[in-house]
Amino acid sequence: MGQGLLGWKGNSGLLRGTRMNTQLTITLAGEDHPQLINVLAAKTHALGGKWLISKINRLDNQVVGIIKIDIPADAVSDLKHAFLEQHALDIRVIDTPSQAEIMPTHPVTLKVEANDRPGLVHDLSRILDDIGIGIVNIENRRIGVPDLGKTLFFAEFQLNVSEEIDLEQLIDAMQQVDDGLLVKIVEPA
Asked: What residues does the ACT domain cover (predicted)?
């Protein structure tokens, strides 16, 4: 056979040495222990994978995290098994959709201030979900103000917002949750 593209011989030689990769999103939650994250990263590396993005948080001897992994398709089963061997953790493995399936978005930070009440995070996140806005991160805190005799709620939502969403209408929808709720949108420069 003659020499093919890139110097490969034969018609099957073009595929030789290539491996199809896939991406997974793995969530974990459970009891923390020393070297846990190092062990999971080492198992990923040993199978030819790499962590693309990870967010790991620890609180009171508990760990929660989300990890996006790029790995050869033929190693996915072994990776799932390696992660599931961590019996103290609740592990979920989710196939990541291809970029073609993802609608274009832009990042927006939404800041909220309100008088605290039960269910506020639920109500705010439900509105975002109903509109179809992806929540990337939520940070909230409650601060007691003894002089006022109440507790104030502050939240910052990192969002992925479709170009089709009218941000003024988003603010109006969020402010319907409670009287006196203040909403401010900060877009990156």
From this structure: 109-188
pTM: 0.55
**Which residues, at least 6 apart from 60, have a Cβ–Cβ distance to it below 8 Å?**
none
What confidence score (pLDDT) does residue 97 get? 64
Examine residue 153 and state whether it is found in any structural domain, yes or no: yes
Domain boundary among 49, 70, 100: 100
pLDDT in tens, 92-136: 988 876 554 556 788 999 999 999 999 999 999 999 988 888 889
Look up residue 40 and give its two tokens.
């999971």
- Of 42, 65, 100, the last residue of a domain is 100
**CA–CA gap between residue 161 and residue 133 (Å, rounded):** 5
Helices 76-84 and 36-46 cross at an angle (nearest 10°) of 160
Q: Are residues 126 and 70 in the same domain?
A: no
Shortest CA distance to 63 belongs to which of 36, 25, 94?
A: 36
At 88, the amino acid letter reads A
Contact 86, 115 (CB under 8 A): no
d(CA 93, CA 77) in angstroms, rounded, equals 11
Q: What are phi and psi of 38, to 5 degrees?
A: -60, -40
Nearest Cα residue to 179 out of 120, 110, 127, 129:
120
If one counts every other C-beta atom within 10 angstroms of the C-beta of residue 155, the result is 19
